[in-house]
Design goal:
The protein has 22 helices and 16 strands. Helix 4 runs antiparallel to helix 5 (96-111), helix 12 (381-421) runs antiparallel to helix 13 and helix 19 (600-609) packs across helix 21. The protein is α+β, with helices and mostly antiparallel strands. A hairpin with a 4-residue loop joins strand 1 and strand 2. The longest helix is centred in the middle third of the chain and has 63 residues, at 225-287. The strands form 3 sheets. Strands 3-2-1-6-5-4 form a 6-stranded antiparallel sheet, with helices on both faces. A 5-stranded antiparallel sheet has the order 8-7-11-10-9.
């Protein structure tokens, strides 16, 4: 039986399978939604039976749901990757700015916004400032500062909740200000999402907002919940980064403070150790009876500088370097040094002056000495206290030595009084007593006699002891016949001493220092040096006469020897060195006459003999008056311009008389 022609030519219905496979291909390529919807239309055109076409429509709907789910998973994967990268950055980097910049940049990229930024509160200024921006083009916006509670960020910070504004310009949920609007409008922002940076437990309720993270577009936009959640996650990382950085800063600050405390402890321990060492060394010096120079050397070594000790008048007593090397001459002015010591005495501490440190050595309010420290390094508090403690020890040592010296001097003073009262009665016994007391009367001594105004006489005796404090062994002083007598050894061969200075120079130096120590003018006369009890007593008598002459001449408060008083010295002196007086007074004229066969001495005698008349002098000399004038001009050139003053004229006439007597 054959098939009818109509049935044999009928085509087979179209299959839906190719269209379903195409849906899978579209899913694999993440095609657009329109591509998926076009599959059902193509199936209808291809003649897919109605039942299969309905199934194809349901398959398209399912494919779109799968596509949406895959897109969500991919987005979540990107977000999780970004969060993981952020956490990795946070763990690997200690630079807070770099971490915050990365968070803001990722927020902008993941949310696809035009810009992102982060603000932090400034607790000192009491406002909020822009910390990090990404995608910003406005200088005004990048340096924006706003008061707490202002703008969308203020709303986020106050409520600790995210806020999204699809159109910032028309949003009335937060307080607009001219300052914020100017920045936002200059940047051109419209849609803004802000989330808080929170610290604290989620369940504890005690959470603190430490900043706000923003994402913003320059066109209106509604932010989806998942975008809010993503930005909140990034904000949580930013909060952790800020908190970690602050913790690290606190740790660093604590470590730095601990380091400084350790330095202070070490410095204090070193200062205590040095103080103990200084105390032991200085105490040992005092107990051993050390002198001022030894104390100065110990302190210079401890403080690594150059130390000098001066008397109350500023004159040096000792100077040493810490390394024992020679001390260069210091150009300090004595008056400047005394003034600096007064400042130290008033302040009761060492004071810095002119690159040096000055410390007054005191006994109560009495200035015993002045210590001067010079070193290149600054003097820290511990070293300054050590320097001041050395001043106390130096003062104690000087007081002890002064007490011993005063005790010894009282015994020696009895010998001096006996020597001056009756030196010729038993000179051998006096010499023997002197040897027992350390005074060699057979050695040459200068004899100085000093007196002062009545109101200061009770201080002159102790001042004399202090004046002799730095003198060589064998010095002595005593109060005798209303004045103070000082015996100062002069040097013998190979044994130089303070008494080697000329008598007049020694007298002037003593007058200056004794005047400073007593606080009143002191007049000093000197004689010698001589040796032996009898000659010492004679020199004392000469010095007493010289002292009276100084007062008669109005030279109280000064010092001199008989030889320096001209013809008065000749009259007052016991050795009557007439030839020396003539040579001192007329020596230049005598030498000139001898060398050139001139008659200057004869002309001068004629001039004085004529009462200073040139006319009568030329008649005596039988020369022209101009010759007399020329000869007197030569006299002035040889003797000085004051040769014709009354004082010098008298000395010249006395010397001319002695020459005439000697020639006769």
């Amino acid at each position: 039986m054959t098939t009818p022609p109509s049935q044999a030519s009928a085509p087979a219905p179209a299959s839906a399978a190719p269209h379903l496979r195409h849906l899978l291909e579209l899913l694999a390529t993440d095609a657009t939604e329109d591509d998926f919807k076009a599959v059902e239309e193509r199936a209808r055109i291809a003649g897919v039976p109605p039942a299969d076409l309905a199934e194809t429509g349901r398959a398209v709907a399912s494919a779109l749901r799968v596509r949406a789910l895959l897109r969500t998973h991919r987005r979540r994967e990107r977000e999780l990757t970004a969060l993981f990268d952020t956490a990795t950055d946070l763990a690997a980097t200690r630079d807070l700015d770099a971490v915050l910049q990365a968070i803001v940049r990722r927020a902008r990229r993941l949310l696809g916004t035009d810009t992102a930024y982060l603000t932090l509160p400034d607790e000192e200024a009491g406002d909020t400032y822009m910390r990090v921006t990404d995608g910003s083009v406005s200088e005004v916006f990048q340096h924006l500062r706003l008061d707490l509670g202002e703008g969308l960020g203020g709303l986020v910070a106050q409520t600790a909740r995210p806020y999204a504004s699809p159109d910032y310009r028309t949003d009335e949920r937060f307080r607009h200000t001219h300052n914020i609007n100017a920045g936002v409008f200059d940047e051109g922002l419209v849609a803004i999402l802000g989330v808080p940076l929170l610290l604290g437990s989620v369940h504890g309720g005690d959470r603190k907002v430490i900043g706000v993270l923003f994402a913003a577009d320059r066109t209106p936009r509604a932010f989806a919940p998942e975008e809010v959640a993503l930005l909140s996650s990034l904000a949580a990382h930013a909060a952790i980064a800020i908190d970690t950085a602050r913790a690290l800063d606190d740790t660093r600050a604590a470590l730095a403070e601990l380091g400084r405390a350790n330095e202070v402890v070490r410095a204090h321990a070193a200062a205590v150790q040095r103080a103990e060492e200084a105390h032991d060394r200085l105490t040992d010096l005092v107990l051993r009876g050390g002198n001022v120079r030894e104390v100065a050397a110990a302190v210079a070594g401890l403080l690594a500088g150059t130390l000098s000790v001066h008397d109350p008048g500023g004159r040096p007593l000792a100077a040493v370097r810490h390394d024992g090397g020679p001390v260069a001459a210091d150009s300090m002015d004595a008056r400047w040094l005394v003034a600096a010591a007064d400042e130290s005495r008033t302040a009761k501490r060492a004071v810095p002056r002119g690159g040096r440190w000055i410390c007054a050595v005191l006994a109560g309010q009495e200035l015993l000495a002045i210590m001067v420290l010079h070193r290149g390094a600054p003097l820290e508090d511990a070293d300054r206290r050590l320097f001041e403690r050395a001043g106390v020890v130096t003062g104690l040592l000087m007081l002890l030595r002064r007490t011993v010296a005063e005790t010894e001097n009282r015994v020696r003073g009895e010998l001096v009084n006996d020597l001056l009262t009756d030196a010729g009665r038993n000179p051998g016994l006096l010499t023997e007593r002197g040897h027992r007391l350390g005074i060699d009367l057979e050695r040459p001594h200068l004899v100085l006699v000093a007196d002062t105004v009545p109101e200061a006489r009770d201080r002159l005796g102790s001042a004399a002891v202090r004046h002799l404090f730095g003198s060589p062994p064998g010095s002595a002083s005593a109060e005798h016949a209303g004045a103070v007598v000082l015996l100062v050894p002069a040097g013998t061969e190979g044994r130089p001493a303070a008494g080697d200075r000329p008598p007049g120079e020694a007298a002037r130096a003593a007058a200056i220092q004794l005047g400073h120590l007593t606080g009143a003018p002191v007049t000093v006369a000197a004689a010698g040096p001589v040796a032996g009890p009898a000659r010492l007593a004679t020199a004392h008598a000469e010095a007493v006469r010289c002292l009276r002459a100084l007062h008669v001449l109005g030279r109280a408060g000064g010092g001199a020897s008989a030889a320096e008083l001209g013809f008065l010295g000749v009259l007052l002196g016991d050795d009557k060195d007439l030839d020396g007086f003539v040579e001192k007074t007329l020596g230049p004229l005598l030498a000139y006459d001898a060398q050139r066969a001139t008659e200057l001495v004869r002309t001068l005698r004629a001039y004085f003999g004529a009462g200073g008349s040139l006319v009568r002098a030329k008649e005596t000399l039988h020369v022209h008056v101009n010759t007399v004038v020329q000869r007197l001009e030569r006299v002035e050139a040889l003797l000085g311009p004051d040769w014709n003053t009354p004082e010098h004229a008298l000395e010249l006439q006395l010397a001319l008389t002695l020459v005439q007597l000697r020639e006769g």
